[in-house]
Design goal:
Distance between the termini of chain A: 58 Å
Shape of chain A: elongated
Largest interface: A-B, 98 and 99 residues
Helix content of chain A: 25-40%
Radius of gyration of chain A: 30 Å
CATH superfamily of the largest domain in chain A: Bira Bifunctional Protein, Domain 2
CATH topology of the largest domain in chain A: BirA Bifunctional Protein, domain 2
Oligomer: homodimer
CATH architecture of the largest domain in chain A: 2-Layer Sandwich
Number of strands of chain A: 14
């Protein structure tokens, strides 16, 4: 170990945009992950675990501009490998590799990596958790889609969010058809779509400027778009669009709107229609969606003051910001994601998102007919909101402390075996302490600790009469003030010695 | 999605030495991981999750020759990063970063990566699972060490291994002291130690040749070593060594042997002494051990015929080998690990291993006094053995199938909402089916399916009198042979229609 000198120089930290998870944060994280997984399992989701890295070519060309965020591994004389960017593409790769599978409900709980600008305050890390549910295989229109949305609602209700979220809905076909009707050229569909997607964070003027000035859209086309993308609603909006002759003359938009109408019928059957909001400005960044898309927004804005991501030295990275400031800045126009990255008062954005992607599997296995629809829960954002709510005094029954330690210290002469402190399981404790022949156990329990007390128990008493004689002391133990523990132990140990002497005398 | 042509050419597979986990394999894996984690949690282990990659310098110089197996990431204008090689060094890095933590029982369940030659048949992959328990912080000699060994035994008993394993024990101080007494020069300590470590797989002659011919040890020194490393036993061996004056004159060996004697007292107290075997040939490869070391060996050899790791096309990679062949080859002398890598009949080796490493934390934070002792369970090997046992007919109650699907199909005219098949949770099913107004539900339950039967149930009956009239049909549903389901449904639907007509007539 003679390398200490060299090691001393090194910076002690985790890699940029990553963090360790321990103690309270780990308990909160685990509570969230376990709860979401359980709900998904109960809805027949089967877990699939894929490697953290894929062949580079598996990920290539699947994420549009975001491909630049993929972590590549060094070529070490073998394959070109990349850390996965999401859990969706590996699922599609797996489906393509397993042509015998025609129908699958997939659960995945795992980390993904994006070499993005980290913004700890927003819960945006380079290594983060996703929890995905995907339905693969043909089904009648909107059947699987509606079930996924029902499960999303079930997840957030089980998490105790109590309706404090909205599932925003749109459909790629409605969106693209609408753009076509407005006169957006085909090569500008995705860029304009991605500009529209910013409307939840930026005002129309800002988005319009991006469309016209940056992306070269005709101003009158942009203004037509405005007439649509400001529309939000429920079944009423579907009915309104059904009366829009221009839109209904576009085959894509027509199909999308008709299926959206069907979806609302099913959502009513699932009793979740009050949780959804049809929003024509929702676009979603990823290329592979082909039908319905959705995004779950938490209804509160959060400044993430409670999100104490440890920095390299273990301190909290974000000072607590007063809520006012957060409210004030909320509507600040921001066009580029980079501009927002260091602003801790930005709202959390979506806590879950997904949609239908019918053609992704056939990217890997041509002519495969494995339509899919899925959702990805943004665990780190859910975690950040949960932490903030806990800080405000909310309780979540699925988040537990570490099991209370029960301490047993056993005293006696030459009883080294019994000096092990801090044993966890009472039964193991007793097993050990009694085998070691310790006459006394000190038990520090949750309840007692609160009162500054602990229990002292006589151990190793087998004789029933003796047990009766000793009463509470040999049963649950007697409760003693912590300050008195030394005195009490000495007194009891003297008693024990006296007993042992008497016994050994009577044996003679 | 016009990239199909390009994509068609790509090889559809996971990266070399990695695999997907799904369905039965995933259930077995999850059963094992959950069981081990639960036992460790019950023993007060708290989960720590670290990033999959660390700064390159964190891992550098910690693994001796094996450092060449570390996966490095491409430098992308930022930090030099490496995928973690084990869960121990990241734990030490975390302890060093958190100087306020003086005592910790750490649980970790996660993947690690080693760019080793994959040998699927032996369960050796490049991406694999470890489950670690580590105690950090000072404790009296062998207290924590004995508890870790007791927990190892508890883990394998809880896994249902029923004593079919041995915990091999040794101590680095005994080993090094013994080498010194035999006359091994200091610079040859670790190389000779690593040669000795091969004695479980190769005969003495082979190991001696490596020591003398490859590593330049004097022949008479090698022969002295033989006198020690063939020794195996329990407390008796400790006592034998305590009478070895040459050995007891070496301070390192003396301390090691005295503490080994203490350890055996504690192991007796834990009632696990029959599970351990003191073996002077156990050396362990890693550099960082400073005291006790241990390795758990499964008592059976396995050819891993049941370990059906899927290859890129989903087929099983290893043809089943007859047991005879495996037995025959078992004793084949092999000096270099590389030589064994393609031999599927080699025994599985250790299923858990660990030891005391008192100086690792101070590699990151000089003068830190955080002695540690820990164990790492080799999940993929435990998985491989479990699969083989399952194939032989053994049952493990902690491995469950996916929850039985319950199918509900509801019939009716223009009732698209109710045509969703394969719903998982009966209550959700009924909720949906009844909300949709379906008059009949078909329930495929586990019990009925075994008998080629299913249940048909009348849904949506609110009226108590009506429920009473319909009896079983409106309660649990009537049991019907699968062949008769069409006929029965038609009959019942006719009844429903008749009722509805009567109702509508009576309302007029």
């Amino acid at each position: 170990m003679g390398k200490n000198k060299q090691d001393q120089k090194q910076d002690l930290k985790t890699a940029k945009g990553t963090r360790d998870w321990s103690d309270e944060d780990q308990n909160v994280l685990k509570g969230i992950l376990d709860t979401i997984s359980r709900v998904i399992r109960e809805n027949a989701g089967k877990e699939l675990v894929t490697p953290v890295f894929e062949l580079e070519e598996v990920l290539k060309g699947k994420y549009g501009e975001d491909s630049k965020l993929i972590y590549d591994l060094k070529d070490q004389g073998g394959e070109a490998l990349s850390l996965r960017y999401d859990l969706t593409v590996p699922f599609a790769r797996w489906l393509a590799m397993n042509p015998n599978i025609s129908n699958y409900k997939r659960l995945a709980v795992d980390k993904v990596w994006r070499r993005d600008q980290p913004a700890l305050a927003k819960g945006r890390l380079r290594e983060f958790y996703q929890c995905d549910l995907d339905f693969a295989g043909p089904s009648d229109p909107m059947i699987a889609d509606s079930e996924i949305i029902a499960i999303i609602v079930e997840v957030f209700e089980t998490l105790g969010w109590n309706g404090r979220y909205t599932v925003k809905l749109n459909d790629r076909r409605v969106l693209d058809g609408m753009f076509e009707v407005c006169g957006v050229p085909e090569d500008k569909l995705r860029p304009i779509s991605s500009a529209v997607d910013k409307l939840d964070k930026a005002p129309w003027e800002e988005v319009r400027r991006e469309m016209v000035e940056t992306k070269g859209l005709e101003p009158e086309v942009a203004d037509k778009i405005k007439g649509y993308v400001m529309l939000k609603g429920g079944k009423d909006l579907v009915e309104k669009l059904q009366k829009d002759e221009a839109l209904m003359a576009n085959p894509k938009a027509k199909l999308g709107i008709e299926e959206m109408s069907l979806l609302f019928r099913y959502l009513a059957a699932w009793k979740v229609v009050d949780k959804v909001n049809f929003d024509l400005s929702l676009a979603r960044g990823l290329d592979y969606y082909t039908g319905i898309i959705y995004e779950v927004r938490a209804e509160e804005s959060t400044s993430f003051s409670a999100f104490d991501t440890p920095t390299s030295n273990g301190a909290t990275s974000q000072p607590e910001k007063p809520k006012q400031e957060s409210k004030k800045k909320e509507k600040k126009p921001v066009a580029e994601d980079e501009d927002r990255s260091d602003d801790p008062s930005v709202t959390v954005g979506s806590v879950a998102a997904g949609g239908r992607y019918d053609n992704l599997v056939s990217r890997f296995r041509p002519n495969a007919n494995v339509p899919c629809v899925g959702v990805s829960f943004g665990i780190n954002r859910i975690f950040a909101i949960t932490k903030e709510r806990i800080a405000k005094g909310e309780k979540f029954d699925y988040i537990t402390d570490n099991a209370m330690d029960v301490y047993v210290m056993a005293f006696g002469s030459d009883m080294t075996e019994s000096r092990i402190a801090k044993k966890p399981k009472p039964n193991v404790q007793y097993k050990f302490a009694e085998t070691a022949g310790a006459p006394l156990g000190i038990i520090l329990g949750e309840e007692e600790e609160k009162n500054g007390e602990l229990r002292i128990k006589r151990l190793g008493i087998q004789d029933e009469k003796e047990k009766e004689r000793l009463g509470e002391l040999a049963d649950k133990g007697i409760v003693v003030k912590m300050a008195d523990v030394g005195k009490e132990c000495r007194r009891l140990l003297d008693e024990v010695k006296l007993e042992q002497k008497t016994q050994s005398l009577s044996l003679k």
